[in-house]
Design a protein that fits this description.
The protein starts with 5 loop residues before the first strand and ends with a strand. Helix 2 packs parallel to helix 3 and helix 2 packs parallel to helix 8. By secondary structure, it is an alpha/beta fold. The protein folds into 2 domains: about 5-75, Ribosomal Protein L25, Chain P (Beta Barrel), CATH 2.40.240; about 85-250, Alpha/beta knot (3-Layer(aba) Sandwich), CATH 3.40.1280.10. It has 8 helices and 15 strands. The protein is elongated. Strand 3 and strand 4 (about 50-55) form a beta hairpin. The strands form 2 sheets. Strands 7, 8, 9, 10, 11, 12, 13 and 14 form an 8-stranded parallel sheet that branches.
């Protein structure tokens, strides 16, 4: 489809009858003041659940007219598989960038963590992060909105991913850690057969994981993983991990590409 500016609308707000969508104040401001759209201009509406519709800004700038029925979207895409998850211990500065870039890179689920050596002033702003993810979805033109989970303690998180998921623990100075690509190669058979629902990587705090956290993680099936020879800041490591995961999935057979409905 031709390139159109995008607006993410929650599925519950899409019109179940008729074609008119009433815009909220922040959406009107975004379309008129940020994107500089005028009545009659066209845009795409996405629901964050794999669908998009073309639409037109109506006279007055307070409503959109959807061009397709709700059950006949212009574009649709299956949820990417396996789901890519990024668990990251909060930092004082930089979490906004982590959220934005993780979304742009294709991460499907983001789990903020708290740990023993987490910075006391670490950010925990889920409302702001949700807004950042929404804006990133619109900007990068993905059809699926990443899931943002509530912050949990790392010690509670180790056992929470879906059964059968692949789980990697980013570490440094760990003698039994493996390289990222070697780890994926060892699990490739299961990945090829579609037996892996999710693939997770956990990024620790600036001071690293405690010995207890690493032991607990490994007892719950997390594999110690090294991402390179240098020591990375938490925010850098999170973006690097998202890039590696995204690149790996991009090279898989493209069974879930978006296509006209």
């Amino acid at each position: 489809m031709a390139e159109l500016r995008r607006l993410l609308i929650a599925p519950t707000r899409l019109p179940t009858s008729g074609s008119v969508l009433v815009l909220e104040g922040d959406e009107r401001h975004y379309l008129r003041r940020v994107l500089r759209l005028r009545p009659g201009d066209h845009l795409a509406v996405v629901d964050g659940q794999g669908h998009s519709w073309s639409a037109q800004l109506m006279e007055g700038g307070e409503q959109l007219d959807l061009h397709q029925p709700l059950d006949q979207p212009l574009e649709t895409a299956s949820a990417p598989r396996p789901r890519l998850g990024l668990a990251v211990v909060g930092v004082r500065r930089g979490m906004d960038d982590v959220m934005r870039m993780a979304c742009e890179l294709g991460i499907d689920c983001i789990q903020p963590l708290s740990s023993q050596w987490r910075t006391p002033q670490a950010e925990d702003r889920p409302d702001r992060w949700h807004t950042i993810l929404k804006e990133a979805v619109e900007q990068c033109e993905r059809l699926w909105m990443p899931e943002l989970l509530s912050t949990v303690e790392a010690k509670d998180w180790w056992s929470m991913p879906a059964e059968g998921s692949l789980k990697a623990l980013a570490t440094t100075r760990q003698p039994d850690s493996v390289r990222f690509d070697d780890w994926l190669a060892c699990e490739q058979a299961a990945l090829d057969h579609g037996n892996i629902p999710e693939l997770w990587i956990a990024i620790g705090p600036e001071a690293g994981w405690t010995a207890t956290e690493q032991d607990d993680a490994q007892r719950n099936g997390w594999t110690p993983l090294e991402m390179g020879r240098t020591i990375l800041r938490t925010s850098t490591a999170a973006v690097a991990a998202a890039t590696l995961l995204s690149h790996w999935r991009f090279r898989l057979p493209r069974d879930n590409e978006s296509a006209p409905a």
